Amino acid sequence: MNDTFFVADLHQDHPGIIRHCPATRPYLRPGDLDQRGRWASEVIKQARCDEMNAAQVAVWNGIVGNKDTIYIIGDAFWKNHRRWINEMNGKKIMLIGSHDNMPLDALELFKPDWEPLGLEQKQMDAVKTLVQFREVHWSLVRKICGQWMHLYHWPGATWQGKPQGSMCLTGHCHGRMQGTRPGEVGMGLILDVGWDVFHRPIRFEEVMAEMKIKKEKMGDRYYGKEEEIT
């Protein structure tokens, strides 16, 4: 049986994320940064980024199989898109985030069917669908494994189907937004599935377990009903 996974904010090949999230990307060593917090050298910057890339690929491929489906909820790859798409397992469904512009030199691998998304021509030239992706979306409302979900990179206070029990999976905040983290309530059934929160892709069953905890904590404040989303 094939599994369904979710992840956000991988930031593969992005050395800046190591400085931005040092607590959850533990690759910095003494002397790596200068007194102003910048990389001490390009060699050091690339070395630490290579360490992060290798570790994240190993974790990903140790969990996700080639026949599994994985929803990537934004900010997947900073550069070398073709390399990482080919090296990382799973049938990928992509939600566009803040840092997902694909390079022009990779267009031979892309599909041009972006007109329905209403993108400007400049964006259409820079962002295309890799053939390894099954789908690419800005936002997605779908029944996944029997549960209505809204997938969107940027967390919000409401989303389509929230009153009917739809769950929102998001990213962007790297575990810094209260109410979106595991075990926290206050924003409803919303969960940050980012790499800096779980340090790996998480299965659908894990998402449902986290949402069950949120429901129990919300008690009477949980107003969702399992109805059809319209």
Give a brief rundown of this model.
This protein has 230 residues and is α/β, with parallel strands linked by helices.
Question: Can you walk through the features of this model?
Answer:
The protein has helices spanning 16-20, 42-63, 81-87, 121-126, 195-198, 204-218; strands spanning 4-7, 69-73, 91-95, 110-111, 129-130, 133-137, 139-144, 147-152, 167-170, 190-192, 202-203. The chain is an alpha/beta fold. The strands form 3 sheets. The chain has a 5-stranded mixed β-sheet with strand order 6-3-2-1-11. The longest helix is centred in the N-terminal third of the chain and has 22 residues, at 42-63. The model is unreliable at 104-117 and 125-131 (pLDDT under 50).
Instruction: Give the spatial strand order of the biggest sheet.
Output: 6-3-2-1-11
Secondary-structure content class: alpha/beta
Total beta strands: 11
Q: How large a portion of the residues is in β-strands, by DSSP E?
A: 15-25%
Text of the CATH class: Alpha Beta
Indicate the CATH topology. Purple Acid Phosphatase, chain A, domain 2
Helix content: 25-40%
General shape: globular
Q: Any chance you could write out the topology, listing elements then pairs?
A:
Elements: E1 4-7, H1 16-20, H2 42-63, E2 69-73, H3 81-87, E3 91-95, E4 110-111, H4 121-126, E5 129-130, E6 133-137, E7 139-144, E8 147-152, E9 167-170, E10 190-192, H5 195-198, E11 202-203, H6 204-218
Parallel strand pairs: 1-2, 2-3, 3-6, 8-9, 9-10
Antiparallel strand pairs: 1-11, 4-5, 7-8
